[in-house]
Every structure is written in structure tokens, then in C-alpha cells.
Amino acid sequence: MKRLTSAAFGTVFLIAACTDSGTNHTPILDGPANAAFDADLAACRALARNQRQFDQETLGAAAMGAGAGAVLGDLDEDGDALGGAVAGALAGGIASAADVSERRKAIVIACLKGRGHPVVG
């Protein structure tokens, strides 16, 4: 049981780490990149990565999923609260991580557009 709980918490932290994947987005440009593009891309990625409130949202979604899963697992005759909590944490964390990744990607794109780069996606 202790091993399962440790695995669940490890998985939640792994999911939170995956929310940074949107910061690795390399946008498509409509035209050539200018001399400042690489520096601006690095700065925009850093800006997106530094939005730590997104990490808190992902952990919160995983916690809420764990709570709901624990309750549902406890109510099910064949289920158990711990198994439900793990499944709920995974479901909530994965859904939030995907959303956060897209939001970070949008920040990179908007930041580059704001710096005058011809970004199309």
C-alpha cells in the first residue's frame, strides 16, 4: 500500500513536470527568422516556463481528482478508496497537464508575435 501511494505521488509530480512541454514549442514562421529570433525564443520560453501558477493548477486538479476518486472508490462494492484516489489523481493531473502545456505554447507564440516575429503557429 505504501508503494502504491508513493507511486501515485511520483506520478503526480511527473505530470506536473510535463506541463513544461509547451515551452519547448518551436513555432512556424511565415518568412525567415531574423537575427534576434533565437534570443527572443529563449526569452519567450522562459516567460512561459516561469508561470508557476499553472503548476499549482495541475497539482490542484490532481488532488481534486484523487479526492473524488477516493470517494467513488469507497462507494463502489468492488473498489477501494486508494485505488480510486490514484485513478482520480491521474485523470485530473493528465487533463490539467495537457491544458497547461497548450497555455504555455500559446504564451510562447504570443510573446514572439509581440516581439515582431511572423509566427503562424
Structure notes:
- The chain has a domain at 64-116.
- The protein is rod-shaped.
- The chain is built from 4 helices and no strands.
- α1 packs antiparallel against α3 (53-75) and α3 packs antiparallel against α4.
- It has helices spanning 2-18, 37-49, 53-75, 81-114.
- Helices cover 72% and strands 0% of the residues.
- The protein starts with a helix and ends in a 7-residue tail after the last helix.
- It has 121 residues and is mostly helical.
The major beta sheet can be summarized as: none
* Helical coverage, percent range: over 70%
Please report the total strand number as a whole number: 0
* SS field, number of helical segments: 4
Mean pLDDT: 79
Structural class: mainly alpha
What portion of the residues fall into strands of 2 or more residues?
A: under 5%
Overall outline = rod-shaped
Question: Low-confidence runs (pLDDT<50, min 5 residues)?
Answer: none
Q: Rg from C-alpha positions?
A: 19 Å
**In angstroms, what separates the terminal alpha carbons?**
45 Å
Q: What is the N-to-C succession of helices and strands?
A: HHHH
SSE blueprint and pairings:
Elements: H1 2-18, H2 37-49, H3 53-75, H4 81-114
Helix pairs in contact: 1-3, 1-4, 2-4, 3-4
For this entry, give a set of tags.
single chain; 121 residues; mainly alpha; 4 helices; 0% strand; Glycine zipper family protein
